[in-house]
Design a protein that fits this description.
It is built from 13 helices and 14 strands. It is α/β, with parallel strands linked by helices. The strands form 2 sheets. It has an 8-stranded mixed β-sheet.
Length: 391
């Protein structure tokens, strides 16, 4: 039996458009494949040895004769393409209805109610890139003190404020008030605090970002593990995505490097259960900014850290590497993309080179993890336990 699972989500590292991608405006998206194709000589040697290039949509990475891991890809069964939806599905929850989005901005009456709650006017109220909106309205925000409220193609209510104009705790309080307001038909997936610093023409976002998510709509893999006396250690924004539900311990991170460091720190400890990590830089810093070179750089950086992660695995640990959606920096859109996500599974008690095919739901991870830990599975997802475990 597996004693512990280390589940690492490479935020937005999709591997090709889903069959319904055109309905979301994402035809032709392939985050990993398009990055690799656009950069001659791009390599991810350690992930390649694991079998990443064996997955459809990743041929640019390159095939190997003897993959070290089991490999496959997964379809998102839920409606939507955002972080909350993806992580919830990985954990066993499937959304039949997508979270609401606001391509024309939020309704006037909703904004007026929010302004009354926070005691000030707001700026913007429109879809925008996070970096572009602070370039556009940063000076006006600094002059007036009005927070910048914006959204994207995803179900998010984002509030940007300069840390020297709006104290960060005050920004978080504004987000809490927005979270309490946004319910029912306006129950967006996440309210996000977007603090920034700098001067005119040189504004930059900080790592003080914080996500205020909806509570999960049902019982998740995390709940099942926790309820059975096992541990769930969350790294990065996992605690925010699940509003702390089912989580035993949590640490927030500054960047991907810190995320890997904190994951390895947990791996050095001895406990039974799950380490659940989100590495957000792929998405937040590079995907949404259409920065192909930057995205490629952090992919290589993670690939370079992979041997350390593998070295830290105990004999009865299992490593799963996947993603939650795409965010193709090679397309004109700066939003998430509706894509397959990769699936790599590795461990000393795990078979090697098994093609897991195209899984019908991200929730297959949940079913597999719970079965490996000897726990009762949830309603959604099909376990691939029997395919991978050495008996």
């Amino acid at each position: 039996m597996i004693n512990r699972v280390i589940l690492i989500v490479l935020d937005s590292v999709g591997v090709g458009e889903l069959p319904d991608a055109a309905e979301y405006g994402d035809a032709g998206s392939n985050t990993l494949g398009n990055i690799a194709a656009s950069l001659p000589g791009f390599t991810l040697p350690n992930l390649k040895e694991m079998g990443l290039g064996m997955i459809p949509g990743t041929h640019e990475i390159g095939r190997v004769d003897n993959p070290k891991a089991c490999y496959g890809r997964m379809i998102e069964k839920s409606k939507g393409k955002d972080t909350t939806t993806g992580h919830w599905e990985i954990s066993g929850l499937i959304l039949e209805k997508a979270f609401p989005t606001y391509p024309e901005g939020f309704p006037k009456e909703l904004i007026e109610e929010f302004e009354a709650l926070i005691g000030t006017r707001i700026l913007a109220n429109k879809p925008a890139s996070g970096t572009a909106i602070i370039e556009e309205l940063g000076d006006e925000h600094v002059r007036t003190g009005y927070p910048i409220v914006y959204t994207s193609a995803d179900s998010v209510f984002q509030i940007a404020a300069h840390e020297e104009v709006v104290n960060i705790e005050r920004l978080y309080e504004m987000c809490r008030k927005a979270r309490a307001l946004l319910k029912g038909q306006h129950a967006v997936g996440r309210v996000i605090a977007r603090p920034f610093i700098g001067t005119s023409g040189n504004y930059m976002r900080t790592d003080g970002r914080r996500d205020f998510s909806l509570e999960p709509i049902g019982r998740t893999m995390l709940d099942a593990i926790n309820e059975n006396g096992l541990k769930v250690a969350a790294v990065g924004k996992i605690e925010d995505i699940f509003v702390g539900k089912g989580i035993t311990r949590a640490v927030h991170t500054h960047d991907n490097e810190d995320g890997v460091n904190q994951t390895i720190n947990y791996m050095k400890e001895s406990f039974r259960g799950l380490i659940f990590t989100n590495l957000v830089d792929f998405d937040m810093v590079y995907g949404h900014r259409n920065d192909v070179q930057g995205y490629a750089k952090v992919l290589k950086e993670f690939d370079g850290r992979l041997p350390e992660i593998i070295e830290a695995l105990k004999d009865d640990d299992m490593l799963i590497i996947t993603a939650d959606h795409g965010c193709d920096p090679t397309t004109p859109s700066t939003d998430h993309s509706r894509e397959y996500v990769p699936l790599l599974v590795y461990g000393k008690k795990i078979k090697v080179g098994i093609d897991l095919g195209t899984r019908k739901s991200f929730a297959d991870i949940s079913s597999t993890v719970l079965e490996l830990l000897g726990l009762e599975k949830l309603a959604n997802g099909e376990s691939f336990y029997d395919k991978i475990l050495i008996k």
